[in-house]
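In the previous lecture we treated proteins in isolation. Real proteins rarely work alone, and many bind small molecules. This record shows how such a complex is specified: first the sequence, then the SMILES for pyridoxal-5'-phosphate.
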Amino acid sequence: MYQSILENVAQILERVKILRPEGGVSVMAATKNHSREEALAAITAGVPLIGENRVQEARDKWIVRPPVPLHLIGHLQTNKVKYAIELFDVIQSVDSERVAEALNQRAGERRLSIMIQVNAGKEPNKMGLHPEEVLAFLARGDKWPNLCVTGLMVVLPQARDSSIEENQRIRRYMQEMAELWRMCRREGFPWAPLQELSMGMSGDWEWAVESGATMIRLGTALMGPRIQK
Ligand SMILES: *Cc1c(COP(=O)(O)O)cnc(C)c1O
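The predicted 3D structure, ligand included, written as tokens:
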């Protein structure tokens, strides 16, 4: 069962090891529109982390939680915050002060791990802080004592074609984001240890690993094409 998922996972874990022999890259399976069984196959094959985009889909799928950490990587509506906090180990998709505020309010006793979503190309159709807004956001941390920022979650423009120019354009964004991440870490904000740079998807993950990503988020490359519902 799910032989292709097992093969994809084995191949990609092997390739990551070649690109980063010293380790330090975790591979997330982004399992939106894929079944619980498919996701469990990826975990069995060695994927250490599951990412879901929609709170409702994740609640339905993970009534019994997966045996690995579960991260939210899609936009969080503030009316779903309560469920998101119950279900997810990390909310990677914090894309506004409003969401941070709502999470902080609902966090209760728990110190919530979040990441800041950064819209690297400032694309109007994508959520996330613009790169130049990230430092100011981090400087406001004392407003949200129940949150801990464990990383940046970068969303990138897609390459329009496979030309060298497009390749270079996307890599330039990645290098800028890696530089932004290192700069934010150097600031040493107590609420923002920023261990992770979550960057790279199926079409560009090898470049992301080369640029310093510590986490890549793979959907189609691991799970196969998504069936739209
Ligand atoms: C769907 C999704 C991914 C994985 O996309 P693929 O291109 O299928 O690898 C990664 N990150 C986010 C935020 C996503 O929504």
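Summary for your notes: The pocket of pyridoxal-5'-phosphate is lined by residues 30, 32, 53, 73-74, 201-203, 217-221 (CB under 6 Å). The first strand starts at residue 26 and ends at 30.
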